[in-house]
Amino acid sequence: MSLLDLKEITKDYRLGKTIVHALRGLDLTIDEGGIVAIMGPSGSGKSTLMHILGALDTPTGGSAILEGQDLQGLKERQLVTLRGKKIGFVFQTFNLIQTLTAQQNVELPMIFQGTRKGSRARRARDLLTKVGLADRVRHKPNELSGGERQRVAMARALANDPEIILADEPTGNLDTESGGPILDLLKRLSKEDGKTVILVTHDPDAAAIADRIVRLRDGCVVEEVRNA
Amino acid sequence: MLKDFFLLAARSITHRKLRSWLTVIGVFIGITAVVALISIGLGLDRTIKDQVAKVFGVDTFILMAEGTFGPQQHAGGSAEEYALDLEYLRSIDGIKVAAALRERTGYVQGPPGADGTSLQGFFPVMGLSPELVTEFESFTGTLEALPGGRLFEPGDEAVTVLGTEIAERLGVTVGDTILVAGDGSAELDLTVIGIMAPDEEESDDSGGGFAMGMRTGADKDTIYVPYETMDLLWGPAEDVLVTLVRSDPGVDVDELAGRAEAALKARGSDVSAVTYNDISEAIGTMTSTVSAFLAGIAGISLLVGGVGVMNTMFTSVLERTKEIGVMKAVGAKNGHVLTIFLIESGLMGLVGGIVGTLLGLGLSAVASSFIGRFFDIKLAVVASPTLIIVTLLGSFAIGAIAGLWPAWRAAKLPVVDALRYE
Hints:
The complex is a heterodimer. By secondary structure, chain A is α/β, with parallel strands linked by helices. Helix content of chain A is 33%, strand content 29%. The longest helix of chain A is centred in the C-terminal third of the chain and has 16 residues. The model of chain A has no long low-confidence stretch (mean pLDDT 91). Chain B is α+β, with helices and mostly antiparallel strands. Chain B folds into two domains: 191 residues, no CATH class; 190 residues, no CATH class. The chains are: A alpha/beta, B alpha+beta. The interface between A and B is medium-sized, with 29 and 23 residues.
């Protein structure tokens, strides 16, 4: 059984008086493990697709099935539980909470799952060590470099040990030098930990780590390439 | 989890120090005013009650004409005098001492002067039980005769004590005799045994100032006679102004007062018994009404503080829209977001409450000493634990309630829109 199964997905937005058809009958199947890169020009529906893959939003039509569970018709609170446990997000703009330290940022998803303080703190430190920031746990985001921030964000994404890492342009705000380690990390997560990594990107360098590249245009999949 | 939410909220407050403090200031001004006013009211209440308690003790009550005390006062003025059988009252079980005061206007004739004429006229004649002076000094104040004379003793009959002014006008001194005529043909020659020493000061701090409207103070133009002597002149008492009663030790004074009142009413006396508890209740009603009114006015500023909190919280929600989106993306339920924001606004209220309570108590202490000095009384400073607890809980509630709407808005933000917000 595939991990994610999207069939005939449509998503319409109302933008003022016009209706935008962001996704127009998109089919996509993602199996467990491996890295999938989703590429496409602006307005191709990348972000909308990511929102649906991340259970942040539900499609207007079609069926989106995550591990056999149809996301269509789930209530907001069920979606929250689902993404809290199964999906880790990495954003282009890092989206760390500025008032919290690196460790507290990593603990945040665990707080909402009700994890006990002791095990939470231990796991947060372990994860920060894993991303190479063992000496930065007490730093606040504005005391960290861009690359470091993104690594904190990755540690946060891993907090609840999700099956899927959903990375939206993770290197988009980084130079090659600091973007490299991020991509390496994503690769390791896939190869060593068996996570399924979904990478939404413009960046050919980023797409190069993918096992499979899906290209979107006008809300549909137009090309699928398997990387050797 | 709640503890973590408190931490998150506290972080967010301290992150915006200046704005948070300004918001807190808005809250604590109102709290300060309310706490100070209520505390001053409580202090005033305590002070007055202490004064009354000092006068009453635990075992005394007053009999007054019905309707002259309490909120059910008759409109248009009622009779201030009442009929009383003092001997019967004294026979009631549980009463140790009873002393009464009655007053009439009587025809008085002084001794002939050097030219053979004597001053005559109508003057107030007051009959008082000797016990009034000996047993109820806290009510009457210190009554003394001028040197060379004395006040009444039990068994005195055809004697009188005069106010200074009337003594002068009648031209009498101790040992002289005056004539007082009562009802019908009743008239008595009364020997002057003393001249009442005038009050040294109108408002005496020793408790003489508190006499419940009794004209027992040394009136300069009053003729005083023993209570029983009034019977001889005017017959059984129907003109009693006030009666003071002390109970036997260990008797429940409120119960006794009720019993005595009922027994006297059954015998045709229109009296009502007033105990310390009655007075203290009346004072309590009055002071708490006044302080509730003042606190209510001060409460308006609390409302303004609450609006300040609401304003700050709306700003906070707006500028943290993205943060809310992130929290929701990483698994925060709507309820979590709501709770975090409510705690944040509640905490600002609570901090305002703590600061306001401390300032309010300080202000009330300062104000009390100022008022005390101004009116020359010692005002009690009261820090009521109930008031403090209620204020702190209330200030948290004000903050939380003011934050309810903004927090609800935050919780309801769609996660996709919130994440996209720049």
